[in-house]
């Protein structure tokens, strides 16, 4: 069962607390609640869809509302892709210091009637580009998964050591 997310949270930068790490502390699966919390903290991700037999991935801004991801789009390949197949995938990731988080969603895309525009605006969906985006699309989430990765980037310490020697 998929947890229905709430309205967009006003806070930013609060990462889900570490949970059970596997692979010697390198990767941790996020709970469904942690995945939704991560999605609610962000507003930019990548939408994947299939159009004319080919896969495509595009950046979009979005919001979370009642267990759905909402976005606006113009008439074009993105809209045609999610409407022709209805199956979509969506991914958001971020990293800080030595940790990265990635959340992937799969679901069915549906165009919402314009009567839902107020709902989308109240949830925090705002256009990032100054262009007409008449189509309001929701992704009904059927699968959500996330992982927290403990990053191993030895070159960072090598760069600090190198700059200390040359500095």
In short:
This protein has 167 residues and is α+β, with helices and mostly antiparallel strands.
Output the keywords.
single chain, 167 residues, alpha+beta, Pnp Oxidase, Chain A, 9-stranded antiparallel sheet, 4 helices, 23% helix, disordered N terminus
Describe this structure as you would to a colleague.
The structure is a single chain. It contains four helices and nine strands; from the N terminus they run ββαββββαββαβα. By secondary structure, it is an alpha+beta fold. Helix content is 23%, strand content 42%. Residues 1-19 have low confidence and may be disordered. It has a single domain (24-166), classed as Pnp Oxidase, Chain A (Roll), CATH 2.30.110.10. Strands 1, 2, 3, 4, 5, 6, 7, 8 and 9 form a nine-stranded antiparallel beta sheet that branches. The relative contact order is 0.22.
What is the top-level CATH class?
Mainly Beta
Rg measurement, Å: 18 Å
CATH topology-level fold name: Pnp Oxidase, Chain A
Order of helices and strands: EEHEEEEHEEHEH
Number of strands: 9
Q: What share of the residues lie within helices? A: 10-25%
Task: Give the CA-CA distance, first to last residue.
Answer: 56 Å
Task: Summarize the SSE layout with pairings.
Layout: E1 21-22, E2 27-29, H1 32-41, E3 44-51, E4 54-61, E5 63-65, E6 68-73, H2 77-85, E7 87-96, E8 99-112, H3 117-122, E9 135-150, H4 154-166
Antiparallel strand pairs: 1-2, 2-9, 3-4, 3-7, 5-6, 6-9, 7-8, 8-9
């Amino acid at each position: 069962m998929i947890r229905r997310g709430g309205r967009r949270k006003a806070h930013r930068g609060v990462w889900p607390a570490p949970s059970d790490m596997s692979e010697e502390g390198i990767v941790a699966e996020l709970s469904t609640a942690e995945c939704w919390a991560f999605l609610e903290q962000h507003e930019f991700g990548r939408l994947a869809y299939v159009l004319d037999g080919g896969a495509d991935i595009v950046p979009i801004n979005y919001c979370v509302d009642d267990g759905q991801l909402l976005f606006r789009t113009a008439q074009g390949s993105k809209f045609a892709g999610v409407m022709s197949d209805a199956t979509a995938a969506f991914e958001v990731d971020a990293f800080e210091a030595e940790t990265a988080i990635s959340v992937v969603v799969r679901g069915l895309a549906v165009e919402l009637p314009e009567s839902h525009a107020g709902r989308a605006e109240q949830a925090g969906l705002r256009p990032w580009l100054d262009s007409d985006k008449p189509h309001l699309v929701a992704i009904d989430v059927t699968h959500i998964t996330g992982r927290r990765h403990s990053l191993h980037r030895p070159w960072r310490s090598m760069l600090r050591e190198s700059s200390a020697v040359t500095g």
